[in-house]
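Inputs:
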Amino acid sequence: MSTSTQGDLAVDATDAQVLLEVDDVVKHFPVRSGALIDRTHAQVRAVDGVSFSLKVGETLGLVGESGCGKSTLARLITALHPVTSGHVRFRGQDITALNRRQMRPIRKSVQMVFQDPYGSLNPRRRVGSILSDPFSVHEKMSRAEVKRQVQELMARVGLSPEHFNRFPSEFSGGQRQRIGIARALALRPDLIVCDEPVSALDVSIQAQIINLLEDLQDEFMLTYVFIAHDLSVVRHVSDRIAVMYLGKLVETGPVEEIYSNSRHPYTASLLSAVPVADQAFRTARRERVILTGDVPSPVNPPSGCRFHPRCPKAQAICATEEPPLEHKTGDPIGHLTACHFPVNPGETLANASRDAVPAPEAAVGATEGVDQ
Amino acid sequence: MALLDVRDLRVSFDTDDGTVYAVQGMSFSVEPGQTLGIVGESGSGKSVSTQAIMGLAPGATVTGEALLEGADLLTMSEDELRHIRGRTVSLIFQDPLTSLHPLYRVGAQIAEVMETHAQMNRKAALERAVELLGLVGIPEPKKRVRDYPHQFSGGMRQRVMIAMALALEPKLIIADEPTTALDVTVQAQILELLGRMRKDFQTAVILITHDLGIVADVADDVVIMYGGRPMERADVRAAFIEPHHPYTQGLLQSIPSYSGRMGRLLPIKGYPPSLMRQIQACPFAPRCPQAHDECLVAPPPLKPVGTSPGHLSACVLPSDAVGLPAHDAQATPAEAAVGGVEP
Amino acid sequence: MSLLRAAVELEVIEEQNPDAKGTEQAYEGRTPWRLAWGRLKKDRVAMVSLGFIVLLFLVAIFAPLLTALIGHGPNTQYTTSGLSLSGIPVAPGHNGFLLGTDDQGRDVLSRIIYGSRISLEVGVGATAVALVLGLVMGLVSGYYGGWIDSILARFMDILLSFPILLFAIAIVARFGPSLDLLIFVIAMFSWPYIGRLVRGQVIALREREFVEAARALGSSDLRIMFIEIAPNLIALAVIYATLLIPINIVTEATLSFLGLGVLPPTASWGNMIAEAQTGDLFTVAWWFLVFPCVALVLTTLAFNLLGDGLRDALDPRHGRSNITPTKRVKRSARSSGREKDNSEGKRA
């Protein structure tokens, strides 16, 4: 069945509008120990064979819990980490094979907005200097021209241009995230990977930043990969959603399709687990699935379908055979699910729930902090 | 009588960089068995309030009243407070790893609470610890009591904290962002557990969080805080369907609606106030779309609003002006500027 | 020390109340340096030390002027007015010798004043050389990692475990004592202290998001090292340079004491102490041994106290973890805060 997935990708790749193509990308981090000699005795399988493609102007929402590999994937797309295997193609060019000099033009086109508005700005540099970096690295410009560009940029993201002489500590979290966005925007990139850009911000500030990102997308024809664990934010900004679990894509498809007709039990439980303030939706939501246990460690992921130890629908085959990411009958084109027993419309997962008490944890002290 | 009645609480810290006025007139009360959500953004003073009451805000200057079953916590000695912190009130924090001693087995830590506060002997206390761990859903509790905190995952550690909090069957549990460090699916487990424990033990809970969804899920009543003051108090349904205070309304409209895409979000313009000075007006006035002149004279007191009993709002707007404005009416061009303007 | 307490409390507040971070908002003038200066200004001990050091520098710079004012040259032997008939040095305050004279009838005060020049020259000079070397080596070692790091880190370890005195004796025996050689030898053996600290800091900074952001922009390694990372090392460098200066001053004194540094008759605190100890005249005329010692102790103390103050002002986190990482501090800080609360509450 996996051939059909490959087939889908092939069709996508011939489309002239395809901007980014991620093809069976794998990233393993060695776990080292030993004081004198580094010995690699295990691998963190952070990203373990992920494929998708992205069209110009599209926003792909990447969703998953900590340790699922979404942040690592972001760093593979932006070539901050080398891939272990697989290919990342930008406008058809394989960027995993490029050297530093060949990467330069790609760096201009692929940018990143980071999660932590405190950590992503150098505390000892003035904002004007931080924002002039893109120009001094890539363009030959006079100082006056750089300053003009920086101030224009600051105004565009909603900062007072007079503040270019300030240090990051003199700005609030929301303002700092605007600075981070301005830096990513400076060279007019085609693709911006947003790694949890609003999760460190307060709700009222989140909305400002999301609106800004949407405005910029319209104005500059940007394509986004938008990583978040807040499902309502992802739903608001995305055209398509990809759900990750332990380094794998478990489901991907158009946003409304995923939210209203999720086929993978993990997606369904994830969606149902989110506490919701919206009263209209609260009454509409049919059930609440409480998953048992924690996310297992990516050092030693479960066999077969990686979700099977927590899955309310799991059967024997799930532990032995890994389900391919494929189109399921009745779903619209582009909705792919990696599951042997996809959730059927109207099915209640809560009943399938195996037991109320959490199962013994697969790996103790499992996954926190692996997703770096 | 209310279990805990806090009136005009003010907390400030003298730091090297100036005085921080973290709480500037907080009032709320909790009834026995009730779950009260305290919601606010960072800097709203939601955590500091309860920490100051329980004597956990080092170096803070605290004034006001905090009556726990009629006795003022703010005038108690450290010893009396420690006694109360063990018996009557339990605390659960965001990061259980900092609250658990890394070098002692979790069973011993839970047992110690009971030994010191309930004069139980070691053996009985350990047995009870096993029982409690089982109760909060830790598999094989007999084996796990002998484990150290680092051997538990984040979710399991929070379960241990809940077990420890329940050990003395307190009348009140203060849970400060108990699930913020956890993943969504694990958060759901913990919230469900908290809810179940509350029912079984008839404990009142103060749940401090920034997540409106959690409050909507778990709480009976909610206090919305801003700039160190309560803006609105209501039962959860009224707060989310008939909010009165413009801040509450703004907060709700900032959430990308879960029930579908609705075009642009409606953020609150501007940024939260600085806490380095005392605010002598409604703290929200500078960001409020409906601010009046009188808002700048003095902070409006809480007054009854709307139709549901106990619905209070610290806003000068007419008391029947409840409910969210229709989305379309708000999405005017004036709003479009909001996204990109700095105060 | 109230200073330590303040640093601890500030840290605890930030740690326990995520809310308190809300105070970190758009404030004008809250630059890192201004904040640090604000904290330092409140630290009386550090400010007094700073005052002493500034004074010391002025004294060293204007040494000729000062000795002219006193009227006694540093190397002049006042055989008639500076020594009693039986050859005993003049006590402090007599014959116009404020701090007395030494066994050769030289003015102790003038010699201490001139000695401060040597101390500062060597202390500051060697530290400056060590700082540059330490910063560059630490940056390269920490940033690149891998085999470069292995080699440099081992090299630093070897230097640190080297017996400096033996090495100095060997070098001086070969090249003959001189001030430049002294600075070179001391710098050679003190840069690894800075290098190791810088390396550790760089390894941490290398993983920060702002460095990642710079790499995402396509910045070169040099640019990342010197424009992104280096500014974040200044605080550390300032602190440890301040703490290294007194160590180097003492090293200079030690080497001079052993006759390997500054040679008599040029005055240095080290050789003054050495000369005073050659006979047993100091049992009668204690002053010409004690005063150079006092100068040395006060100077090292001032630098050390200022260094401590700087560490608390620039890097409160670091200072705290050095003091007490346990919860107990929080508890005691909490209870003291609590007492304050109570008094406030009762007053209200």
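Residues 328-343 of chain B have pLDDT under 50 and may be disordered. Flag for discussion at group meeting.
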